[in-house]
Amino acid sequence: MTYLRRYLVAGLLVWLPLGASYLVVSLLVDWMDRSLLLLPQAYRPESLLGFHIPGLGVVLSLVILFVTGLVAANLFGRRLVKLWEAMVSRIPLVRSVYSAVKQLVETMFADNGRSFRKVVLVEFPRRGLWTLAFLTNEESGPIQEALGRELVSVYIPTTPNPTGGYFVLLPKEEVRELEMSVDDGLKMLLSMGAVNSTSGLAEAQAKP
């Protein structure tokens, strides 16, 4: 039974990551393949070739993103974007969602941005318990002025699903930066600590 269990676990370690990766990639490809519906019926691959080719939607999606960025980057495109945003800002519910998503995307993908690029260690949910978090902003604006303290914005993801979590404002001196990449931090969260970078944690905990 011991050998049987060992071999079964070894097999799972091979097939489970492969299966999960395949499912995720398949879902992404299927989702992006829906962009082919933007084409007229007569110009879709099924009509021209007589059969479906998986992945063509990925190419079309990338082309659409590239062309959109190319247009939006010039003067005429920027004016169109401003006109579109002016129209969206007049719709009560849509303007709030659009503005929040746009600010989040700009923050995450800005070349000079620092959000989600630092892994930190914070005491959460109480003193004496430590968890990984991501520094999202080192300035808290009016909140910092109201409290009279230097605060930082931190996102504390849940485990093993980091898409959910908590946004908290903490005093800067209570946040310990780690010499750990975001990828390593996510791996540690997803594996619930089974995969970790002990060097960064040890260095952070050694600091006063």
TrEMBL record:
Keywords: Membrane, Transmembrane, Transmembrane helix
Keyword Transferase among UniProt keywords: no
Signal peptide: none
InterPro entries noted in UniProt: COV1-like (IPR007462)
Keyword Nuclease: no
Parts of the chain that traverse the membrane: 7-29, 49-77
Superkingdom in the source lineage: Bacteria
Stretches assigned to coiled coil: none
Official protein name in the record: DUF502 domain-containing protein
Organism encoding this protein: Candidatus Thiodiazotropha endoloripes
